[in-house]
Structure formats: C-alpha cells, structure tokens
Amino acid sequence: MTIVTKQDIKNTLTQLGIQTGDVVVFHSSLKSMGRVEGGARAVIDAFMEQVGPEGTVAVPTLADESYPIAYEIWDKDTTPSEVGYITEVFRTMPGTLRSDNPTHSVAARGKLAHELTCEHGGYGPRYGFFGDYAFAHSSPWQKLYDHDGKIVWVGTQTITGTHRHLAEYVAAEKVLAKHPEAMADLRVYNGPIEEAFWPDIKWKPDGSEFETMFRQQGLMVSAPCGDAQFTVVDVRPFVDIQLEYLLKEPTVYTDVTNPKWIQWMLDVDDYKMTTWPKKQ
Asked: N or C terminus of the chain with fewer C-beta within 10 Å?
C-alpha cells in the first residue's frame, strides 16, 4: 500500500498553487491516497499549514444519507457530516466553526472562519431545490466565491464540487427575475420530482462537459499524491462559466428538456453573479 506523509500532501498543494493566505474549500476521500501517516488529521494539518495563519480552510459538512429528514433532525453542534471521514474529523476539532444549514452546512478554520460560517440563512434567500437558504447570498458558498476561494478535490471527482449548485441557484434566480410565473413550477426541497423545473447541470460518469472546458482553458489542473489525484480550480470561474453556459445552452449543459423551461433560460441575458449587500 502506498504511504503518504503530510509533507507529500503539502508538496502536492504547492504544485497546485495553494499558498499562504489562500481561502480553500476541499472535498476529500482519505482512502483514495493509500495509507496516510497521521490519518485525517494529517490531511487537515497539511492544508492549514499550507495556507498559514492568514489563510482559511473549509470543508462541506453536508447531509447525505439523512438528507430526506435533514430539516427534522438538524443540530448545528451535533449532527455529523456525512460526506467523508476527513470532514467529520475537521468538524469536531476544537476551534472549528460550522454554518447553520440542515442540508449544505460548511465548517471552517482560520482567519475568515467566522465570516464564512456566520449567518448562513441571515439574508438573501434564493428559491431552490434544497431550500431557500442553502445557497443564499449570505451562505458560505457565496462567501467563498466573494473571497476568491479555491476548490480542491482530494481523490474525488469534480462532480462532488458543491459550488455547481450555486450556479444552478443563480440560474433559477435569473429565470424568476424574467419570468415570475416560473415560481409555480420550480422544484423545492422535498417537493415533487416529476414535471418540475430545476436547471441540473448535466454530468457524465467521468465528469462533465464543463470539466473538459476548464482543463482545456487551463483553469483546472491536477497533480498526483499517493494513489490519488488532487485537482484545483478557482471558485469564481467554476461558478461563472457554468452559470453562463447552462443559461446560454441549456440543452447541452443541463438536464432540462421541457421546451417552455428551455425558453425561460434562453430569455436570460445577464450572466453575472448576483449579490446582496451584507446585512447590517
């Protein structure tokens, strides 16, 4: 079995351009690397040391198996992360802060940990599949965008990049701005799953059309670490490009097939991220 050290992880992060002061969110599979000396804590420490005291590290702490009942059982302090062992170790470390959302919470450590995790549902709701505040203007997902964050995948496919949902939410937000009547057809958390509009980004078993585009443009790069591949992309282009193309070419980049909904998306002519001023 391949043995991976903390220094190996830091060396790979250096190859990917992760440096002091960066704001990073990472998706992870511990076993993908082989045997990591020090386990999950070594991975976390590698990220924290790489960004230094001026940087910030975040992980998703989402509902997975408990997703259908997430709103019933949610407790910010005790509900475990269900998206990987590293994220649960991260969540339970003293000093870690976690945002308050039943389905799409984020945990963070470092300089901007409080800024990222506070007021997840404080302001700026966006209507959507996972509830109105999962990807609100005040959510960590938006703030990671606002603070020029970077996404790192540690031995996982880019399909696990939760920021794709931010692009979908903003696309729906823009459709509603043009066509308020679309509200009646939008799919919401635990709502009907048939005959409903939601601009799901289309994925293939090996990724998506977007991943091919990002790599061709040099926006997404990978480097090996043990048996795994680490991949990095900046949050802004990851969201901006998906938002633009899923609205411009919904039949290519989304799973939407209803002609009415396709036309709603094509009617949108503004592809810029929407933001609300922070609540005072």
From this structure: C
